Amino acid sequence: MKLTLQLKSSNNYPKALAGLRRIDLEGLRWRVFDAKGQVLGRLASQIAVVLQGKDKPTYAPHVEAGDMCIVLNAKDICVTGRKMTDKIYYWHTGYIGHLKERKLKDQMAKDPTEVIRKAVMRMLPRNKLRDDRDRKLRIFAEGEHPFHDRPLEPFIMPPRQVREMRPRARRAMIRAQKKDQDREAKKAEGEAAKNGKAAVAA
Asked: SS3 of 42, please?
């Protein structure tokens, strides 16, 4: 009751408790994801795994057994490449010619929580369990949240697996390094010869 009154008096979490009464919270874990400095796709894939309950030995595709997911610092999410300016979200209003679009950087400025929500929801299977899993996802732009009275468990992101370089790419890298070394050696020889001529002339 105290939590509900606190949220009603504050405008920071208008949707924090929306739909919680429709979720059976008994036996669920509260997993906390810190999005600060994380890559959008890697973070969304881990959240999708937890929402589906795939990290549990009792996983079944037809049973909703996922845990509650709380995502913090959504405004500090990172993307690779030029996605911040090149990635575009499209939607249609239903009227003729009303195809709308919005770039990722504009969506981050408007509502960064929707960026993570869209990425996670598009990784979930489109079935009857999707709405229930969406209710278990709570995203906040800042590092504050109203669920401090719950048994929270910080989620540790798995280490990123770096794929070994293929032989063809390795040979190309070696050739490039050798070319740079030869260029530096020729440059050093040219400077030495130039300095020698200057000393002789003096």
From this structure: helix
